[in-house]
Design goal:
The protein is α/β, with parallel strands linked by helices and 112 residues long. The protein has helices at residues 7-16, 71-74, 99-111, and strands at residues 2-5, 24-28, 43-46, 53-59, 62-67, 77-84, 88-95. It contains 3 helices and 7 strands. The strands form 2 sheets. The protein has a 4-stranded mixed beta sheet with strand order 3-2-5-4. A hairpin with a 2-residue loop joins strand 4 and strand 5.
Length: 112
Amino acid sequence: MEMTITDAAGQWLIQELQLKAGDGVKFFAASDKIPAEHGPKQGYAKDNHPDRPIYEIEKDGINYHVNFDDDWFFSNLTTTVDYNDQDGLTFTFAGGPDTVAGASINYEKYLM
């Protein structure tokens, strides 16, 4: 898993969620449909207390993360979070389709 937060997305999230240095934002699947829909609109929320984060990145003093519960959705993908005035906050995904296997492997590691 890899994630990029563009400058435009980072600045928009800081303003939208009224973030200050040290705050956090979690990203999550907007739906639990199977098969997963990796579309441009996914979930995000201010979250200063990550719950078993499986991915973390810091940008402009803000800690962005994906919690263990959403590993199944982001596993094996490269995710770009971007913002523009027309589309708002958008997510694009690239990478392998075998997200369920990746989540299963990570779950087994978590249990050990």
